[in-house]
Automatic annotation (TrEMBL):
Presence of keyword Transmembrane: yes
Signal peptide: none
Transmembrane portions of the chain: 31-54, 74-92, 113-137
CDD domains per the UniProt record, alphabetical: SQR_TypeA_SdhD_like
KW Heme (keyword) present: yes
Species this chain originates from: Zhihengliuella halotolerans
Pfam families: Sdh_cyt
InterPro entries from the UniProt entry: SQR/QFR_C/D, SuccDH_FuR_B_TM-su
Chief site of localization: membrane
Molecular-function GO terms, alphabetical: metal ion binding
Coiled coil region boundaries: none
Protein name: Succinate dehydrogenase / fumarate reductase membrane anchor subunit
Length: 150
């Protein structure tokens, strides 16, 4: 007694309807998000290792990092934009990764919506606050005994 089964080639396009979250929607957002993760990951490697090398291996290392070190570093616009790029890329990279996890594991549409709403809100808040800190940082606190403020 032999049984015959129909040969279905891999990736034949036969996907069960229950896995289609938005039927009929065609677009390349997920492909662009995938590409963004790869490109931003490469840039983050350069930014993070550059940050670690200049902060920890140059000069006195970790013992030199204090308020004055950050004030001196952020007095240079190059380091402001370096840290800004690191902040923005890290937050967007992480948000995209968490968005993918939410899409994979949240079964209900309502749960998925609220998890993503909290994710996007917190991302915007952290990016805005981090950007404000980088560009409005003033080491000269009134009444401060720092040398740079006199």
């Amino acid at each position: 007694m032999s049984t015959t089964t129909e040969f279905v080639p891999p990736r034949s396009g036969r996907i069960d309807k229950k896995y289609n979250r938005v039927p009929g929607k065609k677009g390349n957002f997920e492909m662009l998000a995938w590409l963004f993760m790869r490109i931003s990951g490469l840039f983050l490697i350069v930014l993070i290792f550059g940050h670690l090398i200049t902060n920890l291996l140059m000069g006195d290392g970790i013992h030199a990092i204090d308020f004055g070190f950050v004030a001196g570093k952020w007095a240079n616009p190059v380091w402001q934009f370096w840290d800004l790029a690191m902040l923005w890329l890290a937050m967007l990279h992480g948000t995209n990764g968490v968005r993918t996890i939410i899409n994979d594991y949240a079964d209900k549409d309502r749960t998925r919506f609220w998890l993503k709403a909290v994710l996007y809100f917190s991302t915007i808040v952290i990016i805005v606050l981090g950007t404000l800190v980088i560009f409005t940082f003033d080491p000269c606190i009134p009444g401060s005994p720092l040398e740079v403020c006199k």
